[in-house]
Every structure is written in C-alpha cells, then in structure tokens.
Amino acid sequence: MQLSPATPALPAPLSHRFCVAPMMDLTDRHARFFLRLLSRHARLYTEMVTTGALLHGDRARFLRFDRAEHPVAIQLGGSDPAALAACAAFAEAEGYDEVNLNVGCPSDRVQSGRFGACLMAEPALVAEGVAAMIAAVRIPVTVKTRIGIDRDDSTERLYTLVDAVAAAGCRTLIVHARNAWLDGLSPKDNREIPPLRYPVVGQLKRDRPWLSIVINGGLQTIDDCQQALDTFALDGVMLGRAAYYSPWLLADVDCSLFGAASPPIDRRQVVEAMIDYACARMAEGTPLASITRHMLALYQAVPGARAWRRLLSERAPRVGTAQPQAIEVMRAALACVEPGRAAA
Fold it and tell me: Yes or no: is domain 14-258 CATH 3.20.20.70?
C-alpha cells in the first residue's frame, strides 16, 4: 500500500532534526535530564518500555520524567494493537510529546515477545498498532525501524512497512541504516556487523518526500550529522552511543543544527545543575551513583578527566542517598577538572 503524494504532509517538527536514540540501560530519566542541560532542542527518547511493563508493572515508575526533559518521546515495545493504544494513552496523559514504536530491536528476548525488528515481517500488524495508537492519542506516533532483516538486501520489506504505517497515519519514521540480523548476532554485534547503507535511507526520502525521515546508525559527530542531512536531504538525524559516551557534542547541537543563538554552555554550570538535581532525587530515594554514572564522559579529553571518572565511579556508590556526602563527592570530582572553580 502506497500513500499518495497528494496526501497533505505534516511538516517535520524542528526538534526531530537531532535526536538521541532510545538505549536500554542508558537513556533513563537521569540521563535525559543531564543531556537536556547540554541541548535545549535535541529530542530525547526513553529506553524502550514494553506494553506488558506498563499494563502489569509499576506504571508510575516507568513513565516518570522531569518536565525539563521536553521535548521527550517514549518508545514502546509491543505488537498487540489494543495494548499499544492503551499504553500510548498512558504516555500522553503523563505528558510525553511523542510515542515511538520499536520495530528495530534485534535481541532474542524482544523477538520472543513478538516485537522489535521481527515485526518488519508483519507490516499489516505494525500498521494496525500504529492506527490504534493514533486513534487513542493526539500526540505524534512515530516508528523506528531497520532497513531490512537478515541477509536480504532488497528494500521491498522496508517500503512495504513504510507504506503500511504511512497509510495508517504515521508521518515520521526513524530508520537505522542497517539490516537487523535475527539469526544469532547479539544486539551489540547488530549495531556493528551488518553494513551501513545510508543511500537506502536517502532513496526512501526521495521516493516518499511527503514523509519525515530521520536517519540513525553509525553517526559519530556533528559533522557526520550535517553531512547526512545535506547529502540525502533528510529531516533529521539520531545518534545513540556517540551522544551518550561523548555527551559534550550536544553542546554544539543547538547552534550548528538548529541555528540557535545560544550562549556557550559551561561544563561547570552543568555539574552545578546536576548537584541540585541529584539532591532532589536522593530525597526521593535515588542513590547518587544512579545519576553520576551518566556524567562520567562529560569531561572527556579535558585535563583531569581520568581523575573525574575515577572519583565518581569509586566514591558515588558509597554515598547512597546521603546528600551532604553526595555534594562533597561531586564537588571533589569537579575540582579535578575545574581547579580553582569548584567552590560553591
């Protein structure tokens, strides 16, 4: 099924121009708050949350986020249309800006639950889920997918899926420019071994110009992002581990990719804001290490960075939720990289 070019196209929200990917065990709410301090405009995504977790687990815990995180999207994992619709409604009620459906994760556990990349083989079911979510909420419903599955390098499966979800009302797709090999590769290997094929994503945008297409996979720097946007006339880029493990690159996102005339960001100010944030979260019972683990790479390549990482890695876990000790640890780490500037 192909969506007609005559169908009115919704303009791509500017915030999709740069996105930080959903990453299991990484993009929790503490990481997202930290990354938001570095960029006002980047669109942030939660870790994938399964429909089962929201329907039968601690829903409040899974949905919780800080209002400072906006724009923030929740990524859902699931395949049952009714369950997806219910969970999308939960997310909208909580205040999320977007619901994203995972059709790209290749892990065995995800496959056994009949969601993730294996759903590329069931485009009608994906479209049914998308239609159910769109009917249940007013916020955008998007899809994140791969360009194919296993060793099939044709693009027929990709276009069938794209056209099916577009006909269901989806206007924005995030496309990881690799196939997902479902026959034995680990999730890590699936991020590295299947070859990147950026031209496939570029061709998809040319063939379906009325859709908003965001490219993902292998991008490491702001220059990489700008080149992808320019070369393929895409609507946005999404970075994953490059953004998490080199977070300071987000400090250049607003100026370089959004044209914002923002004042230069100061790392020390970021740390000071994170001290305040950590104290607030510890008062709720969150251990300091759950927050500082996301900050280890902030001073990457800066003199004293190794001492910063070592001090936070070794001392933060001992603090627990004791606020005075937490402030002491964070300021001691700051003194390693900002000598003479760490005092309150």
Answer: yes
